[in-house]
Amino acid sequence: MSGRNVSRRKALSLAGMGAAAAASASSALATPALAQTAIRWNMVTSWPRDLPGPGVSARRICEAISTMSDGKLTVDLHSAGELVPALEVFDAVADGTAEMGHTASFFWQGKMAAAPFFTAVPFGLTPLEHMCWIERGGGQEVWDALYEPFGVRPFMGGNTGFQMGGWYKRRVTGLDDLKGLKIRMPGLGGEVMRRLGATPVSLAPGEILPALQSGLIDATEFLGPSGDLAMGFHQAAKFYYAPGWHEPNGTGEALIGAKALEGLPADLRAIVLHAIRAENALSVAEGEWMNALQLNALTEKHGVTVLPFPDDMIRAARRVTGEVLADFEEMGGADAAVYRSFLKAREAMGPWTHANELQYLTARG
Known about the structure:
By secondary structure, the chain is α/β, with parallel strands linked by helices. It has a domain at 37-160 and 249-288: D-Maltodextrin-Binding Protein, domain 2. It is 53% helix and 14% strand. The chain has helices at 2-37, 54-68, 89-94, 127-136, 139-147, 187-195, 208-214, 225-231, 258-262, 266-300, 311-331, 333-364; strands at 39-45, 73-78, 100-103, 152-159, 166-168, 182-184, 199-201, 219-220, 239-242, 251-257, 305-308. It has a 6-stranded mixed beta sheet. The chain is globular. The N and C termini lie far apart (103 Å).
């Protein structure tokens, strides 16, 4: 009997040891498997790190993706120049150097003539109207079609709100003052200025202030008061013009490599898209609030003079804008499709904006 008990105890002990060993082996196998499920992406941007507005939006998108996915997908943020130059973000996403980018569509005008429509159009849509076009008016569809040949998916990834007209080192008293004026102004607004006699210059955001200080340029536009104050433009120019007729809207874009997005499981793909959309909505409210506060700081603390553009300049810019936009119809293909979609949205939203918002703001005084 005693032998049988010892034998039985030994058998139970051996069984327990075997179970523990099996559990240990299972754990050893499971740990690498779990690690393999964690995905790491890179995001490259056109902005200085944490630049108010677009720089902050880029960071928050990365943070939101990591938090909502519980670390299953993390996105490492690279500000302008850290991994690729500021104006090579699109190429980096297209060729797979980075899975994501945060930038502005008007930088890609040389690749796709209609790309600037998705940042802003002179005398075009307001921030809310632009969101309506992209989300409900067919704008996302034509945007997707424009970028599809490059293997890139574009999304609204932030919005700095209404833009200002820009910083000028000397007063603009009339249309003639634009002749020979060197101004940093990308996108369709830059083409309008060129036809009005100015010389538009394309510069990455981090290069603008040194160019303004050195005299390489005479004027610049960028964002609204919040972003402009952070960039320090008031150190080199004191005349701040309004309105931002060239960019009444400030949409930034989040780019994702199509293959990278399609390669995600459905839950992570949904998290990425939700993080981008949520940031776009938050940034509009934040942008307008901060612009209001920082405009006061510029005028009261830094002695900046806010001036309206001369009437003859505004009239001429509006007329030339019509000519610039009409050229897109003749281009055909995806560029013409973007123009027609934009025009349809502006015509659809215009009567409501005028009947309600414009009348209300006039009444409010």
